[in-house]
Amino acid sequence: METYLLDWANLLVRWLHLIAGIAWIGASFYFVMLDNSLKAPKNPNDAKRGVFGELWAVHGGGFYHSQKYLTGPKGEPLTEDLHWSKWEAYTTWLSGMGMLAIVYWIGASSYLIDSNVMALTPAAAVGISIAFLISGWVFYDILCRNMIGKDGLLAAIVFVFVMAANYLLHHVFSARGAYIHVGAMLGTMMAANVFFHIIPGQKKMVEQIRRGEAVDSMPGIVGKQRSVHNTYFTLPVLFIMISNHYPMTYANKHGWLILGVVMLAGVLIRQFFVLRHRGQVKTWLPAAGAALLALLVVVMAPKQVDAGGEKVSFATVKSTLEQRCVTCHAAQPKQEGFAQPPKGVMLETPEQIAQHAAKIAETVASGYMPLGNLTQITDKEREAIAIWYAQGARLKD
Q1: Residue 269 pLDDT greater than 80, yes or no
Q2: How far apart are CA 100 and CA 93, in angstroms?
Q3: Do the beta carbons of residue 205 and residue 216 sit within 8 Å?
Q4: Residue 369 CA from chain centroid, whole number
């Protein structure tokens, strides 16, 4: 019953995370587009009122006129009816942490720990996970505080830092756990940017405007810096969110490098859209991003298995699957933490094995399965399964 309830918790929290994430990213993308599409106000009176830029838009059968004031309106009160964009960010982060706890902390033995990488107890793995997320934010925040106005250099240093963290995580956790922690680190940075800098800075400016004081522009500068970072983190985080469905990425022996290339491609593609809003169309940016992804497709292509030589019998393969895989992939899994077979895949009968032969060969050869190598499958057994599939995956010897 406990595992069944955890599955429901996983489903509902994941759904919430997806909904909140769409709301946050949608708002973020919209305001980045708006900020980069502003034109100088055409009405001289608007400029006198403090309007920095404006945008006319059409959507949903109506026309919209957006105006931006850097430090609030001049000569008139600031409306009391202000819309704040913050709960989308907080809900996304909180639900994401909920998923991290449900899947990777409660299920640390299955999803977070790989004894072939580092022998950890579940308590130690969870402790490292929490410490990593906190220290990642602290280091990033210190960097940003000390490099205001040096955006290009800061971006380069942040990328190097993320790659270093990515590499380190792959030497502590399972490959899947490492990927999700890179995403959790970036997501924590994004939400903390909103909570500690963007919203407090905006509140400070609002209070100064309402008291009739001169408005300090520094909170706006810091908020803009963090908002820009958030928009570039978005595509890498979205990739990591879906990556656990594609073990060919994280289960690769160079998974940390693959993640780095994908993240860089995402940044290049996002930069294209940011500049496009300013009227600058630089097609080399998405072309470079696509080229990086195409390079991965070529480099990551699986090597052909030599099907010659001694035949691998089905009995050998079935015996290996029974020892190493059926503890999870059964109608009634015996592995703790599984109420049902992962992805509904069962490998108890020859017919079931034949149905999933291609996926068995792929996931076992990649090292992704068994999860964390809980059942201690050997390299020789992995090779035998790959050869059996290359020889036609026969069910009869």
Answers
A1: yes
A2: 10
A3: yes
A4: 22
